Structures
1.
Amino acid sequence: MPDIKDISSVSISDPVALQLTDQLQQLIAQTIQDDGPLPFDRFMEMALYAPGLGYYTAGSEKIGAAGDFITAPEISFIFSHCVARQCQQVLEQTGGSILEFGAGSGIMAAHILDYLDKQNCLPESYLILDLSPDLKQRQQQTIENIVPHLINKVKWLTQLPEVIDGVVLGNEVLDAMPVSVFRKHRGQVEEQYVIGQKDELKVAWQPASALLQKAVNGIESDTGILPEGYLSEVNLRLAGWLASVSGALRKGLLLLIDYGYSRLEYYRPDRSMGTLICHYQHRAHDDPLKLVGLQDITANVDFSGVKNAAEQVGFTIAGYTPQANFLMSLGIEELLAPYINVDQQDFIKLSQAVKVLMLPSEMGERFKVIGLSKGLDEQARGFSMRDLSDRL
């Protein structure tokens, strides 16, 4: 987890940003007034996705040096070429399309299309499902800049297609799904709510909903009874999301890349304050009630929960592995080799970027990849070197 920074001294001078966060806080306050205290997952949903006001739906730049965080496809095109190799293996079995959830700047889509074009293995179409209007514009521009002749392959969606064969991609998608926050208090499970108090948003605790209680019971049956005062989070929306994707994916692979742990690691007794984290201008902190609508709010992924929910809706676990092993299985060293003889400074930059993707102290171990398949016969190549799915 990144170092936690103090943001108490952060001041917002941009009048547009101030107006957006003001309007969003008013909307949240009105919702609390109308409906009562908001469960944290509902607050997180509004903070990130409220139409025109939420972090992902308003117009601020989010990804890259000028934004709040940098993703693997932004670090190097080599990452996307590795993902493209996995897509190629699946497309050769299934035909069909690629669907990407939350395509960010569009850089991964552009580099996957570029690689597959050179391999004569283009999908029927490259579908992007993204809730952010400004990111859609940025994606179009990125793709037109890198592969202008393939822009007609790309289609933007507002909902899942009824049927798809091929590959579904989610790079850093699950961590941005709203989570419920719970704590153990006097032997009971309590749920975190957000309330309005003197024109401020505050935290309150109430007895957990039946659904949250059931989820925590499941966690404790796997990990042991959580200690008094233990606070963490759980994604209660994951099962429904996976069911929707499974209903659409007829034959192919759902590939999810994110930071997280197996359940035993996630809910360790010493990880007693959960994993919820906020990002604002490359600073990480742990107060989601600050900078509402202007900051990202994320939580790590419980990959055991992903496996359990996926198997219940018809997926087969194709593999689970750290990002470094996934990239090595797909030949990252081979993809890097042709650049050795190019400009030395360029090669040094490329090598340094690959180190960020691969090193355990960077993204190599912290980020994991899980593959969920339907109707595939071959082992997914990305998990050939090291498959840890038996630890989930």
Note: The chain has 13 helices and 16 strands.
2.
Amino acid sequence: MKDWQHGYDLDFLLEVQADFHDYNNVVLSPFAEMKKNKVAQLLHEQKMHYVDRLGISAWIPTNVAKHKIHVRAYGNVDLGIRQKGERMIDNPVGNKELLKKTINEYPENVWMTINSEYELGNEIAKELGFNKIGIKVNSFSDIINVYVRQNSHLNMDIRKLPKIETINIKKVGGISQEDIREMKVKINLLEDLFTNHYSNYNRKKAWGAVSLRGFDSDITMIEKPSEMNNKWKKDHENYDYFLQDTKLIHVFKPAIDHILNMLPAETERIRLMRLEPNGGELDRHTDQTDKDLGTQDGDIIRFHIPLFTNDKVLFHSWDSQGKETIHNMAEGDVWYLDIRKPHRAVNGGDEARIHLVIDVIVNQNIRGMIEID
């Protein structure tokens, strides 16, 4: 028996893992799956409640808070604060009626986190009268519904999201036809310069980019060093990366200056991003690897401006309640995207989609531009 088993027989742990099949089948993050080693750890820490009545069974991953715990949507955006003595339940499995009866018997205030695709867990939360207060989103783009129910006399600390945190995608302006034409003429000269994007969600290597402003003078350096993995950082530890214009930005003047002057903030990276035609796809993902993203002063947010597009380019985005919206962004429109939330892009047209993508440093003027109705 291995140390990670904490004294539990392997066959038993595999049986419990199998009981979580329906939940594991919808999870995107491998770290969120209920595998044998996680089962052993939860049992060892007494954070897994097993219920067996007349041969009918259920498993409830649960624990009671020993101190205040922030319940966050993503980053440091709070949905609420779980107080000492409040219970958390995470994706229970087993007999539905037994789960409902057992959960109803907990005397504490209860929080529940349920993957949005896990039907049984969401049905139980709704049938027991839990209130959905929002969603959590992990870096693998799992959408996790957060429910609460107050059972005791102690009030629960639930937070209301600031307005800007409820916006996942929004058109905020447009650029001139003259600047569109100028940008397009010069983009046509870049056909062979787009570099394949390094991400895991770059389906069929259909997504490429070039840098106008980045962390190196090389236009093919589209990465942000701080969000790369440890191997990349090790391989590049002798490089001195800092934010700078590339020679390519000068090719697009004065149009690029006109566009940047529309955004009342300093810029971080500026790139042209191309998505290949005939089904080119960016799979559902988040950009939470960039820890600078956010909506407070000094954070980074992103704007997209389509320059080459068609009516079959669809952008899917999920909002702060987990609702999916689908947009076709018109040429020259300026769109704010909250890329901490799940999003996906598909080019079903016959021509490449090319966007000007601008990351800016947040200030009050930028927030006001996004929040205005």
Note: The chain has a mean pLDDT of 96.
